[in-house]
Design brief:
Elements lengths: L5 H7 L6 H10 L2 H11 L4 H11 L3 E5 L10 E5 L6 H14 L4 E6 L12 E4 L3 H16 L3 E4 L7 E2 L5 E2 L6 H8 L3 E8 L4 H12 L11 H6 L5 E6 L5 H6 L4 H13 L1
Parallel strand pairs: 1-9, 2-5, 2-8, 3-4, 3-5
Antiparallel strand pairs: 6-7, 8-9
Helix pairs in contact: 3-4, 4-5, 7-11
Length: 265
């Protein structure tokens, strides 16, 4: 039986965290409830597992714009990232059904590789040392393959902005560069849904206080558990050709900004 064991994860990563702190974090992330989700979903993987998570939490997911998602072709699905968990699981749920688990790869923080039922569709992004080189090689191989690439170009969960709106930070230009390099079109994806407001406020105050450690990430699993009964939606927008946009004289950052604007229109 699969289960999340924070103490073992900390030990495997060579981190030195006092036992009392680890126990507190286990409560914050709702480790027992997460393991209950794993228990009822076992041994499902990929899209089947994602279906099970949505069912367990009584979530509804409305999908729009299916006509913009061709059955054939190689694409980069570039999505905003308002939730940090259930948005990725939702995309696995729908795109895994469309293309098959073996034909999608989702770029994620390497910590998420501890979610074993999604390992076969996840590609870890790790920038450091030997693991970083291995991750880069695996990502390059995925782009060169016929698999569909799913990613969140902001790299972080959406943030609360000064105007009171919750939206992504700047989208990194690398997803545009990789799409052009691999001859792929980009399908912009709008995921509509929010965590509790307190999550975004915590991120805002953490930055104001100058704390570099991403404290709010610890609370993302609890946001998954707190989402019970919510309704989300995914909208797939028409594919865009980044190579054609570049040929028109647009820079990679400009293309990234333009695609992000499409998502937020």
């Amino acid at each position: 039986m699969l289960k999340i064991d924070l103490k073992e994860i900390v030990k495997a990563r060579g981190m030195k965290i006092p036992g009392l702190v680890t126990s507190l974090i286990e409560q914050i992330i709702h480790q027992e409830e997460l393991n209950e989700i794993l228990r009822v979903s076992y041994p499902k993987e990929g899209a089947d597992f994602s279906d099970s998570v949505y069912s367990y939490l009584n979530l509804t997911l409305d999908v729009k714009g299916w006509e913009n998602v061709p059955k054939e072709g190689r694409f980069v699905f570039a999505s905003n990232h308002p939730l940090g968990g259930l948005d990725g699981i939702g995309l696995v749920k729908v795109l895994g059904r469309k293309y098959g688990d073996g034909n999608i790869r989702v770029l994620v923080n390497d910590m998420l590789m501890n979610v074993e039922p999604l390992r076969k569709v996840f590609l870890p992004v790790n920038k450091f040392g030997t693991q970083g080189r291995e991750a880069t090689k695996a990502i390059n191989e995925a782009y060169a393959s016929d698999k569909q690439i799913v990613m969140f170009p902001a790299g972080l969960v959406s943030r609360l902005h000064p105007d009171g709106e919750i939206r992504d930070l700047d989208w990194q230009k690398s997803f545009v560069a990789k799409a052009i390099e691999s001859g792929r079109k980009i399908i912009p994806v709008r995921f509509e849904g929010l965590n509790r407001r307190r999550f975004y406020r915590l991120a805002k105050w953490r930055r104001k206080l100058g704390i570099k450690f991403n404290i709010e990430q610890i609370f993302l699993p609890s946001e998954v558990c707190a989402s019970r009964g919510k309704s989300f939606s995914i909208t797939f927008l028409p594919p865009v050709d980044p190579a054609a946009m570049k040929a028109q004289g647009k820079s990679l950052p400009d293309i990234a900004r333009q695609i992000k604007r499409m998502v937020y229109l």
